[in-house]
Amino acid sequence: MALRSLLLVAIFLFCIAQVSSDMEIEEQSTQLVKGPNRRLLPFLDCAGLCQVRCSLHSRPNVCTRACGTCCFRCKCVPPGTSGSRELCGKCYTDMTTHANRTKCP
């Protein structure tokens, strides 16, 4: 009788430990994005996405630097090499330079 109850307690503790470790792994694999588009996103490769976005730009280094800043702040890079800025929302479209020009390519 004591062996049976000990076995049940061991199984119960194992199940709790397994659920706890699954929750920790899930929390590490996603990050929370704050702002109007709150959602859980996987890791975003800003460098790779900005490299594609600025590949046809006349000044690719300047474009990549600005795009990286926008990607880091807004957690979004529009698809393609130009246009489609509205797909990333208000954060991406409303960011400006000190000279009040649009910052994000």
From TrEMBL:
UniProt-listed InterPro entries: GASA
Family: Belongs to the GASA family.
Pfam families: GASA
Annotated keywords: Signal
Stretch forming the signal peptide: 1-21
Protein name, per record: Snakin-2
Record flagged with keyword Iron: no
Superkingdom assignment: Eukaryota
